[in-house]
Amino acid sequence: MLEDLSVEDGGGGGGDFSHQVTTVKSAEKPPSPRNETKLCGLQNQGATCYLNVLIQTLLYTPAFREPLFHLTPKDLNLPANYNDQTSLSANGGSSLKVRKIIVELQRLFAEMLLLNQQACSSIRLTDSFGWQSHEAIDHHDVHELNRLLFDAIQKSLQGTKQSNLIRLCYEGSTINYTQCKACQKIFKRSEDYQDLPLVVQDSPNLQTSLANIFTIREQLIGDNQYRCSSCANKLCDAEKWAKISKLPPILTLPLQRFVYDIKTGSRQKKTTRYEFPFEIDLKEFCEESVIETNYELFAVVIHQGTCYSGHYYGYIKDIDHIGTWVSPPPPSSPSTKSANKQKPTSSQNSNISNTSPNNNRNSNESADTKEETMKKLDLVKTLLLSCDDYVTIDYLLQIYRKNTTTSWNSTRGVHGSFTKFLRSYPDVFQVDDKRVRLVERNCDMDIDMNEIDEMDFESSQNEIPSNNDIDNDEHWFCFDDSFVTCVTREQIKKHYGQNDCAYMLFYRRKDRNRSKMDCSDNTPYSIPQWLFDEVLEKNKILDEKREAYEKYKNQLLVTLYPSEWFEVKDGCRLTLNNNDQVLFPDKYGEHIFDKRTKMNDFISKLEDVYGIGNHFYVAKKLRSGQLHVINELVCSSSDKTLDKSDLSNYHNIIVYTSSSSLPDTVLQGEEFEPIMLTIVYGFPDAHVHAARLQTIKHISKNTTLLELKEILYYDYFGHDDPQKLRQIRMGKLNLEEKNNRKSRREYKVDEEKQTLAQLRLQDGDTLGIDDKNSFVPNWKNVSSNSTNMAINQLSLTVKNSIDTNNTKPMTYSCLNTTSIGHVKSMAIQAFNLSIESCMCRLHIDDPDVEHIPLYDQQTVDSIEFKQNNTNLCLKFGAPLKENDLLLYILSDRDPCSLELVVDKNITLSHLWLLIKQELNMDDTDNEYHLCEVKPTLIDDGIPLNDFDQTLAANELANGAQLTMRPGSVAKKNHVRLKISRIIDKTYQPNEAIHTEPKLEMIELEEIFELPVISPFNVLRESIAKHIEYKVPVGYSRDVKPLDFIRLYSIEDNRTVSIVHEPILTTLKQAKVQDLDSYAFELLGHPESLAKKDLLLNIVYSKDEDENYFQHQFEVHWPLKENITAKYEYLENHVLTRLSSFMSNDLHYKNVSKQALKVTLARYFPDRAQWIVIESGSSPSSSSSNTNQSASKKNKTSSPSTKASKSNLRLEPYKLTDLTVIGVLEGEYLTANDFDTPYDQQTRKEIEHDKQQNRLNRERNRTDNNDRSQANGSSSTRRKSPQNTMRITVDDFDS
User: What is the per-residue DSSP string for 1067-1092?
Assistant: First the structure.
């Protein structure tokens, strides 16, 4: 039966051909299995390609991998429940520390060897390093990681039987010789190494780099003489050389590609040609005692990109034949290569031309521009290779700027905008609205033969050995993060001289007697049993997930219809032949089949169910819900499956029994699909014939426009007339008004020979027909009248989601003007449900919009069906009235979403009250706000805060999903301000009144919420009203309470600035944000600060011991727009205020401003220093000798700076609000005269802190150099612009 063809648990199962359909609506795609190489890659966590290539190299190093696997759980201090994911963190109550790095390295190696997955994750390994998530997106150097990782492994293995693993595998030694030419004595110094860095610059190959270190002798003469201990520490001529005294089994050779260019002052990457052999004899570079000197290359790390960012991948030799190697296709010939060189050029030219903003640009652009374009393209590709999948275009442009000295805007005229440039290469970049990624991330793994010049090609051809010369067992693979491909030696040699160049080389000692690896079933690859069992369990889970996903992916939902339901209309469509609701009979309806079923088997099973001799037609559902026959299912000689047939696209089958067959006149096939058109008749007497004319026409898209015109002419006039037909014209109409005009497009005579498909007409288009004299004048009236005539028949399918025991869907043929309420009533009746109409509602049967209910009063034609899907679903729920909205509220107070049916005309505040009532919240609880959740946004939308407006004004639609987020928000176009009152100012110490005061403030309980268009005066007025302040007696009526309030903007309980308000600056203009903090001070007098005014703090007169200032007062220095802050104006205002202060506060008598001779100084609290403010003019020549001497002394010994002759707001004084100005009586005083013991002590503390910071930097630099020297690197370590890489290791010394 048909259930034999269904997927497991797929509907339609059972001998009675049941309509119970169970589908898997969604399934997470499992990781892909390994490719044909049978090897596993590593997932890139963001920018961890450098880690991936090193881990792959270690895995395929048997000398490292096998001893690592010999460590038992006891060696690693694993607890008894070591298979538990939480065991490593909980540690099972054991006092021993788990060797996390080794455990995770073992686990990752085991997964990479056995887990049937294209790429494994290294997250658990990096977690054992102590890395945070952000550290996985930093670019780092693979050589640096190699040293850090080896150090971490060595520390983690302390106290185990493999504690010497790194030393035994990678550590060698060299001997440095120095021979004094005076006494001929030779001095030796031995050094250990784990890698030998080689200089690439000015070296053509690996042998030359080694010879420069270990064969060429350096002469120590001249300024570089050697101090010989045997010659009484005298400087002598000497000779220096080095030899390798010990070779490790694994020889690591980093290539120093990055150099510092003194001319440009920047780092550069050397990509000059540099050859390296696949076999090498190191005998000439070693001591005679070194016997085994033959090595073979087994791993090459490739770097692609610049010295600041890029991408790493590697070529690794599969020594143990773990994978399956297939020979790659041979390289193309020189002629093919030359031809291929031209192809990208033309396409690139066209792309560049298309992206240019100038359409008339000359296509023969300069070669420099083309070369620059390709450089930009390569750089952008390289940057994307270092990223994981999608990145934002803004982020890509940001890292592009960091890797080039030229801004993109400077070349915008040539390449267009950055986004446009990316879109001009669709084969390379996949771009959506805001993100971009590479189309194929492994596109650069295949070597581009076009980049090899003729000399390189001929050289490579000469270097190709015969099949007899190459060991057939030599298998090389390219590991590029998740991707693994087969390569040959020739492909690796192409990296002798490219931007993708070799960065690290790994050689292994030749071992012809190496035994074949143990791959028995019990212990494959020597993997510990506990890891083997763990990976087997993971493979089992993967297989189950893939099987479930395959079933989900191969589900084919098909609806089977009985032919008795339909009648043929217009020769190309099938419509229901009744207007009643009908349930699908047994054996019909929706069924799920497996796409992999062979067509012949499928037809055979259909015949078993419906009878031999029946015909089965594949049909497409039209926009009207009706069907169009595509073809008949017939048996064939091929093994075609359902997914290769039309059934996989159209999902509908009409079963014609032997008694009823499809007429031969019915047009079948995609090319005869009918198009639903609205016809507007523009003839003068169209209103007379309106009753009998059909304004909705279903016409085959293979029909020509002339044939359609003949049909419409006959329908209107009832006869044919070829002569009058020539006077008839047709046009495509758009009923949307633009500038009070109806737009149209009249078809020309030569277009009448084209088909409707060629004219690109679609369902729902409107065509007009009339004679040439009446088309335009009558169009406006005709179009408005035609809307009432557009009546069409629709076929709907309604599913029953209320009664789970009766899931047969209903079909219903109705007019497009039928109301949803009527369709609902028909469905209740057809399903025989004993519920009232007010207890249920209809939804569109579409996962994207199924949560949005339909209104009972809306008509069928208002439903926005997708992809001709005219399916509805009946569900429980109160029906919606005309103004109702169904809202879904998500909150942390209820695990399920809250459904609310509300009137769209209620305010947002009213909605909040309803939500609080439903969630049993306190009405005064305002610590939440609402945001709308939209599928098009990654994050929630902006907060809804227009509380006084209706839900419609807040743009909330039916079915909107709202989420409650913590924190209240201000009303729209309002800000809330936190206000504190300054009640006291204190100084530390109390005598230091010239320093910044510490404010004692009390925050007001009330949050002041004001419109953003309010000036600060409104805030002052609100504060005065809140504290109930009244103007003291004695002031005029014009003085207001707000004039006594000084407003400060504060941050961290410190005053930042004083709010000036000369022209009623608004909060929006001042860029005030919600919940900003302000403080106010209540003054004893009214104050009005203009825009340019300054409020200065004046300290005056020191005590007898000159330890501190005695008096303090404020000076309001008014400055108009066109007045510069000159010294003369400042001095005048200070003296005026000082004389008033001395008379009124100090009670001095006969104080004259003209008689006062003072010196002014500006105080800088951040560095505890004074600068004397001098006048712009020098002392007059008639001054006394004493004054001249004092002036000279002041100029030579005073640390003060000469004042600018213009603006004191500028350097060096930079006067601002609340600046402290010291005033001392006397002329020509120095900064030392203003200094206090507090200032001297503060400067000492500042200097001490600076010194400590310098010492800390020196200490850190020394530690880094010592660590580098211990690892065998130069003390002048190459700086990196990235964050420092680290690996955290527990202490296992005990």
Answer: TTTTTPPTTEEEEEEE-SS-----SS
CA distance linking residue 968 with residue 964, whole number of Å: 10
Q: How confident is the model at residue 1156 (pLDDT cuts 50, 70, 90)?
A: confident
For residue 1192 the two structure tokens come to 């000279």
Question: Please, what is the angle between helix 334-355 and helix 454-463, to 10°?
Answer: 140
Q: How far is CA 912 from CA 707, 888, 920, 950, 1044, in A?
A: 61, 13, 12, 12, 40
Residue with tokens 């703090």: 1097
Spell out the long-range contacts of 336-342 with Cβ–Cβ below 8 A and sequence spacing 24 or more: 337/449, 337/450, 337/452, 337/457, 340/449, 340/450, 341/450
* Cα Rg, the chain, nearest whole Å: 43
Cβ neighbors of 897 (< 8 A, separation 6 or more) are 888, 889, 890, 961
At 327, the pLDDT band (50, 70, 90 cuts) reads confident
Residue type, 1166: D
For the beta sheet containing 238-246, the strands, ordered from the edge strand earlier in sequence to the opposite edge, are 186-193, 172-180, 238-246, 218-220
Per-residue pLDDT at 577 exceeds 70: yes
Of 780, 778, 785, 767, the residue nearest 683 (C-alpha): 778
Is omega for the bond preceding 895 within 30 degrees of 0, making it cis? no
Burial of 275 (C-beta count, 10 Å sphere; 0-12/13-18/19+) = middle
**17 and 609 Cβ atoms separated by less than 8 Å:** yes
Q: What is the pLDDT of residue 1026?
A: 93
Instruction: Express the helix, strand and coil content of the chain in percent, nearest 5 each.
Output: 30, 25, 45
In the DSSP assignment, the letter for residue 821 is: H
Beta-sheet pairing, 1076-1082 with 974-986: parallel
* 955-979: burial string, b at 16+ Cβ within 10 Å, e else: ebebebbbbbeeeebbbbebbbbeb
Q: SS3 for 786?
A: helix
- DSSP class of residue 231 equals G
Question: Which of 621, 763, 758 lies closest to 696 in space, CA to CA?
Answer: 763
What value, to the nearest 5°, has the Cα angle with vertex 1147 and ends 1141 and 1151? 65
Name the burial class of residue 544, with classes exposed (0-12), middle (13-18) and buried (19+) by CB atoms within 10 angstroms of its CB.
exposed
Cβ contact 180:219 at 8 Å: no
Nearest-angstrom CA–CA distance, 1171 and 1230: 8
Q: What is the secondary structure of 587-631 as a DSSP string?
A: T-EEEEEETTSBHHHHHHHHHHHH-TT-EEEEEEE-TTS-EEEEE
Whether the model clears a pTM of 0.70, i.e. scores above it, the answer is: no
- Taking alpha carbons only, the member of 161, 83, 69 closest to residue 113 is 69
Could you give the maximum distance between any two Cα atoms of the chain, in Å?
135
| Residue 418 or residue 701, greater confidence | 701
Report the C-alpha gap between 802 and 818 in whole angstroms. 23
Half-sphere exposure (CA, 13 Å, Cβ side) for 1156?
26
Closest CA to 556 of 1013, 128, 11: 11
Closest CA to 47 of 468, 464, 552, 399: 399
- Cα–Cα distance between 412 and 397 in angstroms, integer? 13
**Three-state secondary structure call for residue 265:** coil
Please answer whether residues 150 and 167 qualify as being in contact, where contact means their C-beta atoms are separated by less than 8 angstroms. no
Above 90 in pLDDT, residue 1023? yes
481: alpha, beta or left? (left if phi > 0; alpha if psi -120 to 50): left
pLDDT at 23: 53
Separation of alpha carbons 399 and 394, rounded Å: 9
**CA neighbours within 13 Å on the CB side: how many for 602?**
28
Taking only the tens place, the pLDDT of each residue in 1065-1119 is: 788 888 898 889 999 999 988 988 888 889 999 999 988 888 899 999 999 998 8
